[in-house]
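Input.
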Amino acid sequence: MGKAARAEATGEKQDGAKAGVRSGAVAPAIGTKTFRSGMSRLGAAVTVLTTDGPAGRFGMTATAVTSVTDTPPTLLVCINRDNFSHDRFRDNGVLCVNVLADRHRALSETFAGRGKDSDSRFATAEWERIATGAPVLADAVVAFDTRIVEATEVGTHSVFFCEVEDMRFTGTAESLIYFDRTFHPIAPRGTWPGKPDDGKA
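Output.
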């Protein structure tokens, strides 16, 4: 069989390119539902983002938080511009990332819902203030008190770059993860609250 005929029969490109891929071709766009389904398999820490200032005190549950650099310590936080709290975070210019544990599951649902006003949401937990004035959850696993130093818009969201001005830890090394559209508690093996570490691997 000749080279051209063999290529036609097998789908091979005569120039050695991978079958079915044309040079310079643009891959079809991924649909929103497909992308969200894929992202549901990327586990992420559950946080409550809080702010306070001239625009008022507000908060929301979020998982779109990640580290950017440790010099200076900076986080990246993504917020949908349609979210009611979005403009408050932007206008106040400060933001605290409160990392949650399994004991905060109800709190995460409170700040994710739409039914309660801001004061009612904050009334469900104890809050402190350290550097920026943003509310800090008193028993957060860790809280990153930050100031927004840069913002950019990508698609439906604003991407905030937040420089950490102070941090607050509690003694529990545990977390609450959102994975496959549900919550999952995690902790170092043998160190669940109330359970001693028996030293077993």
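The radius of gyration is 23 Å.
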